[in-house]
Amino acid sequence: MSVQTQEAPVAAPIRKSRRSIFLRRPFFTIALVVALGYVLGALFAPYVAPYDPVAQDINAMMKPPSLAHLLGTDSYGQDILSRVIYGARYALIIGIFSVLIGAAGGLVIGLAAGLSGGWLEWALMRLIDSILALPSLILAVAFIAILGQGVDKVVIAVGLSMIGPFSRTVRADVMQVRVQLFVEAATLMSIPYLKVIWRHILPNVIFPLAVQVTIRISEAILVSSSLSFLGIGVTPPTPDWGLMIAEGRAFVSFAAWMSAMPGFALALLLIALSIVGDGIREEFDPKLRRGA
Amino acid sequence: MTDMIPSPILTLTDLTVFRGAAKILDKVNLSLAEGETLALVGESGAGKSTIATAVMRLLDGAKVDGKAELEGAGDLLALSEKQMVTLRGRRLSMIFQDAGAALNPAYTVGRQLITVLRRNLGLSKTEARARAVELFTSVGINDPEGRLSAYPHQLSGGMQQRVMVAIALACNPDLLLADEPTSALDVTIQAQIVRLILSQTRARGASCIFVLHDLALASQACDRIVVLYAGQVVEAGPARDILEHHRHPYTQQLKSCVLEIGTRELTAPEGTVPPHDRMPAGCRFATRCPRALPRCAGEAPPLIPARDGAESPLAHHFACWNPE
Amino acid sequence: MIMAQTQTQTTAPTAPVFELIEVEQVFPVPRPGRPFMSRDTVGLRALDGVRLRIAQGASLALVGESGSGKSTLLRVLLGLDAPSGGRALYRGKPIREARAFGTGFARDVAMVYQDARGSLDPRMTVGALVAEPLRHFGIVPKGEEAARVAQLLDRVGLPADAATRYPSGLSGGQIRRVAIARALASEPSVLVADEAVSGLDVSTQAQLLTLLRGLQRDMGLTLVFITHDLGVASYLCEEIAIMYLGRIVETGPTDAVLSHPAHPYAAALRAAAPRFFEPIPEPLPGEIPSPLDLPKGCRFSSRCTAAQEDCRLRDPQLGQHGAGRAVACLHPLTETGAQASEIR
After folding, report:
1. pTM passes above 0.95
2. Which distant-in-sequence residues (6+ apart) come within 8 Å of B272 by Cβ?
């Protein structure tokens, strides 16, 4: 209804003739390479890391970056590069698993809220609102206080704290999809409602959710690092970036690399992940694509 | 008529528009006489709206070549944006298909009209308001005082389009471009709006270009018709010549697709407009043309006068190697 | 009782496909100008005393402008909404009941939406979209599904490789063809199409219209075609029903109604349709009244050029007017265009 119906008569060749996504989006490609680098580093940490991340060396305490220790050493003489590489393991594991917990919980609550209507929807939405009222970091702190410390606990705490935002977006998508004409058309064919949800609503909700997942991994990593930084996440001597930044804090005036290196590693991963997430969204979201 | 050629108010010379690699308008030449109403007809993608937006210099992200000379203002395409701003509204104005989207939803229609009047004509607040009431009355809006304080969403589609007409004509432009002004409206409203645009432009001696897809409506509303196909003019001339003595097979095809009441037989044309990257080298219509000759595929036909000696740019012209 | 009298007389006295008897649809809407937070509502009469009968094999054009109640009527016909008054029957049974009872109704009555693109799941290929009704209604065994999809696509003039494409890669004309193929997949006897050819280029429109006419003739479909274009109505449909403000004001054979409209509104619609080189006619005065505030008496009286005193007092019902025709007017136009003083 908006403007002229400019129809591409045959649209199939348009997609074929488009150059590869890697050429069209150089930043996306760079970010993807960086993110993959982290993933590979994390996977093959024992082979890539030059030292044992928890091996202490009294003779090499607080050494600035040198050929022997590319990123320097910390106050216990542990090699920072090795710790950063192993740290990527924890960061990615916590990021991915907590987001999966958040997305799964969000999908269930969001679907239920979006499809039920009535008092159930009202109750679920107030629940989500109350979760959303607190920033995810504070929520995660609260969950940690209940659950205790440790990598698994951090995953659960961060995951739970992300259910709220995920539920919101899922519900918004469900509300949007369920009033679409194709859902009415399916109902008109007297396809049972549960089947309509499964076949038509869910696929149209899952995809934007998957995109959300890629974007929110960085948020989860940030929250988990913040927990460690506050000293309530994973326990030392686990090579966690947040923990490393916290440990280096006292020496920042004369051994800045101790905090800066893990901080830089964290920042680079977060930036790379958000660029990758945005790129995926812009490339594959049909809503954005149609406008382009 | 042939001796006394009225001076053209708008002359397009080799107007070409590229969007990326696609040439969406290809060397369009056309003239518009003073006080004339002209219809641009064709299917979507033919470039009819592109001509109107190119003349208004409202094409975003497209490369425009050629000339569009407005009498007294020179080549519109060569003007600075600043100069263009002073022309839009005062000499040229445009009515869009979707009036609801063209009006700003955050302001009352009165405020939008009064802003135009004050900025372009330098009227005082009270003068502008009085003029706005006059304009609303002239476009047939009942209770003009009350409607001035209405927001666009409170008005029906027909009313919104009347407001658009009032805004477009507020500063007595010499040239009005109406881009499918009625295709979103019901037929009875369509008749009202087209009559309104015609009576208002005629009363002001303004010229008017209608972008239309309905040939029957074009014949009712316009003196001259330009038929476009895939970004090129294929036939142009007085409405009767185009519809009753057309020479180009595409014009014939367009006409045969018009459903009048009582039409029982309809032969649907084959195929669709080829995409820009697969446009034939010769006549662009050759791939769908029932009268195509071997020559048509390789050699583009020039636009030639339909009658010897009738060289005036306003006379009947067509571009075909094997005319009807 | 009106529409298909001629047909039903000749064939066996089977129940018509659709029969609407004094159907009303009233929606509660906020009272205009009600105080903030107030829950005061008024009834919006979207349908008001609709009488319609559609016989097996008939082709009916439902014509009216926006706000005439076409879409509301459509939802009642499809059983998506229950009317708030009157009876809406499908082969003698209330439509809502027919709908609730098994898949028979859904299989027999297929729908083509105006927004064909929106009615197709963007994440399914054309092949999957057409196969969905085949599988749902168990039309063909699983092994023959692909062949039937290809056959259906061919029938609507799409190339076989279209099956692997997604709706976003198809043009407006192709999308409508997919929607038609999907509608035909369940082997319906009734096809309901809502503005199925509007907003398309004339040549694409012509292609679709010839396709629809061919389908209707070959498959003996009962066609209910909602349109605002009288040219389309007269090409495709043998009967026509013209709606104004929630009521059918005139119905009958398309040719007869359009050549000699009896209702002044039908005449105005007829005159407003573009015709080559005819001067644009004087439009109807005024605007379409709000359905919340219908004029007293005849609902068209506020805009009717031929309204008389009693038109503002009495509300005319749809009543017989010559062979197979019916009109809701106290002073219908006669063939010569003059006004009969009193017809009934």
Report:
1. no
2. A9, A10, B288, C171, C173, C203, C204
